[in-house]
């Protein structure tokens, strides 16, 4: 081991140990729980697949998982679409730290406060309805704004947009402006430069922003509970209920790991779609460098 | 099937001063058996006390002086539903909670099935005596079995229909809430065990609850969907629904805790209580000391304070519920005293308290897990 490798190992050890103890070990425990059985608020060690089978066969689980996937995909797509222009502007146009800090300032408000703010905005007597009524667009307040998948998606877009912008800015800052200028000099349109230069080079960051948003949104159970109503319930809430209400930790664990699998499948699909459309460059097979005699 | 037995209970929650006084006199005569004069050693109090209690029921204000005098620091975790309590104890290594509230329906689950309750040493709780407590709470099997006190009844009340008298006329039945004019203007509390007795009563199966077959369970929830279709929201907690009532987005709340009235009145909205023909859902909350408790002496001292008649009156007034201490009645204000006819407390409790569905499958009845799943499906719009 070289001195630099040793230093790197020492520096990474605290974080790695932390993740091992507080993520990997609990995740393994949770995974093992998913094969146990629960009877009358008692958890009994076993090795059965009944929790996975009953989850997959449950219309409730399928319904809320479908909701979670749809809300997750819509929110992640909208968030990414909104964050790309902002990221581009911050990286190549304004280079302004002030705007960047203003975006970060939104994190200073509590997650719950922001949810309640959206409830106020979307409510029957909320700002949105007041404006629509004032403009004569509607005659009576629209109740469907709140307690709907729309309300969940718009609230979570607001909450996770700063995360996505951070990741997009980070990804774009690696791409030199000269590359974009060169592509324009060679006759590419502005949009073409984005798709042929920026997107392929920032692909990992863009996919990271999309997937991070998707995973956080699809697993969120507070926002759907507060603004989702009956049609906006997601898997997170169902899983939480298995742990809190029925005491059926094994079933909750199985449902959690099924959601984990769903996230992996979505990730694979996003990668495949990116490669298919050319937004993600195909991996090049590198030949070993020829040794010079 | 009609729900006749509940009618007698309704009649009892009408109140006159005369009947209340008669009731007190009768109760006084009825305490000849039991612990009239107790001279036990009090529990030594001090240090940190971890409490799990419903919002507003932890006596933060009422026991301020006691905590200060005894150097007790109370840290309370609010309960949004009773499930929050048992959830802490399912896996190994339960948290060191010194004291928690539990609804009478969960007695068997906590004491016999989960075994998370440790016996209370009543010699350290001098306020627990037949002279102080109403007979229906003193040494009754719900909290006292196998010669041990597992819980100390603390407060009781009922959840019922609340309505804004400016937005609708007083409902006589929950069915009145199905009026098309109230579409999108009612709220349902996300309190499964509070709603379940009503869900059964609405299809005439109230007397069978909590022992419904799976078929009956399906029928009951199929009917309750009508109320979901009328609902603006299924509210996760009292503060949440209070906001919607205060903003006049919601005109009525099913099976709600009347303590919401106080919160809403403070904002100038006339929220009133109605006792519909289906009846209120009675409950009794008790304190229990979990097996994982650390500060056991202080927990005993805290329970003792909670049964002090003046403290009982203050808490009952603050949360718009009723004391388990009969001596507390004289300390209640006129409004609080008039709300319940304490002379008929035996009648109020005559038809028993609702339990929870069986935890273990007996092959015949819908289990607790079946009910929870039905409730989850109801909430998810299935």
Largest beta sheet of chain B, briefly?
Answer: 11 strands, mixed
The CATH homology group name of the largest domain in chain B: Periplasmic binding protein-like II
What's the SSE pattern of chain A? HEEHHHHHHHHHHH
Q: Pair with the most extensive interface? A: A-B, 29 and 33 residues
Mean pLDDT of chain A: 88
The overall strand count of chain B is 13
Regarding CATH, which class of the largest domain in chain B? Alpha Beta
Low-confidence stretches of chain B: 1-41
Query: Termini separation of chain A (Å)?
Result: 28 Å
SS field, number of helical segments of chain A: 12
Structure, explained:
The complex is a heterodimer of chains A (293) and B (382). By secondary structure, chain A is mainly α. Chain A has a single domain (45-277), classed as MetI-like fold, CATH 1.10.3720. In chain A, 72% of the residues lie in helices and 2% in strands. Chain A contains twelve helices and two strands; from the N terminus they run H-E-E-H-H-H-H-H-H-H-H-H-H-H. Chain A has a two-stranded antiparallel sheet. In chain A, strand 1 (37-39) and strand 2 (42-44) form a beta hairpin. Chain B folds into two domains: 10-156 and 282-348, Periplasmic binding protein-like II (D-Maltodextrin-Binding Protein, domain 2); 158-281, D-Maltodextrin-Binding Protein, domain 2 (3-Layer(aba) Sandwich). In chain B, strands 1, 2, 3, 4, 7, 8, 9, 10, 11, 12 and 13 form an eleven-stranded mixed beta sheet that branches. In chain B, strands 5-6 form a two-stranded antiparallel ribbon. In chain B, helix 7 (214-230) runs parallel beside helix 14 and helix 8 packs across helix 9. The longest helix of chain B has 17 residues, at 214-230. The chains are: A mainly alpha (293), B alpha/beta (382). Chain A binds chain B through residues 39-43, 59-60, 63-64, 123-125, 143, 147, 225-226, 229-231, 233, 238, 241, 243-249, and chain B through 81, 83-84, 86-87, 90-91, 109, 113-114, 184, 192, 228, 232-234, 236, 240, 247-249, 359-360, 368-369, 372-373, 376-377, 379-382.
